[in-house]
């Protein structure tokens, strides 16, 4: 009798152990599902929702980063000093005063063109290359500048090959990573430049495009990447 009771107790203990293990597995699966869901939500917020969440933003595109860009031939590096590269390319480097950094929900009228600082939407535009017409709203990409990003913008109507060259140069390795902390997109503020690079409080503006502009872009990116007041990895 005692033996049967011990056998029943052993079976009950085994069953309870199996149920406990199953419960733990289910809990782990649920946590994983929730984590994946959170990643998806963050990806959506950081990508297309960057434009959607901006109230009255100037961009008409989706603010969605395109997946890839074709690498094309670009001129090799000849000048690494920013001042010399900018001068040789006929570009200007300016350092406008910081115009604020408050989170807002509406449209902001920036005092520089392209915008280089100021109040902005709470959702930063994500790193990457945006297809023409899908650029993020200015209120979102100004927030990205605050995080130390560099933005390379080109005027609407820029030839496709030139856009590909700009994307290729902007994607060159920096700090051990390709396309490190950079955004490339078509300008949506009617800037006076053919191409411009922007950091928080800094602008490289080139009114005409030439092979020498690429060195100016490289030097600007190297000098001002990760120099925003809020460095976000």
Automatic annotation (TrEMBL):
Segments of this protein annotated with the region Disordered: 1-28
Top-rank taxon: Bacteria
A Pfam family assignment: DUF3105
Record has Transmembrane as a keyword: yes
Composition-biased stretches (Basic and acidic residues): 1-18
Transmembrane region(s): 34-53
Name this polypeptide is given: DUF3105 domain-containing protein
Alphabetical keyword list: Membrane, Transmembrane, Transmembrane helix
């Amino acid at each position: 009798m005692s033996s049967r009771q011990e056998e029943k107790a052993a079976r009950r203990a085994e069953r309870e152990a199996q149920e406990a293990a199953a419960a733990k597995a289910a809990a782990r699966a649920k946590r994983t599902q929730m984590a994946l869901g959170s990643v998806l939500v963050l990806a959506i917020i950081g990508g297309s929702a960057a434009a959607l969440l901006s109230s009255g933003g100037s961009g008409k595109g989706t603010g969605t980063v395109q997946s890839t860009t074709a690498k094309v031939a670009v001129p090799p590096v000849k000048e690494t000093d920013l001042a010399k590269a900018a001068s040789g390319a006929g570009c200007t480097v300016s350092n406008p005063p910081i115009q604020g950094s408050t989170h807002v929900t509406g449209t902001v009228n920036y005092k520089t063109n392209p915008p280089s600082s100021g109040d902005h939407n709470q959702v930063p535009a994500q790193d990457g290359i945006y297809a023409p017409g899908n650029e993020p709203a200015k209120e979102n990409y100004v927030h990205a500048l605050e995080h130390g990003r560099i933005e390379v913008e080109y005027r609407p109507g820029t030839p496709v090959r030139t856009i590909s060259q700009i994307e290729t140069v902007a994607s060159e390795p920096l700090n051990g990573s390709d396309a490190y902390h950079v955004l490339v997109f078509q300008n949506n503020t009617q800037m006076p430049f053919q191409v411009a690079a922007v950091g928080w409080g800094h602008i490289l503006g080139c009114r005409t495009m030439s092979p020498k502009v690429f060195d100016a872009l490289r030097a600007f990116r190297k000098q001002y990447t990760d120099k925003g007041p809020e460095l976000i990895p």
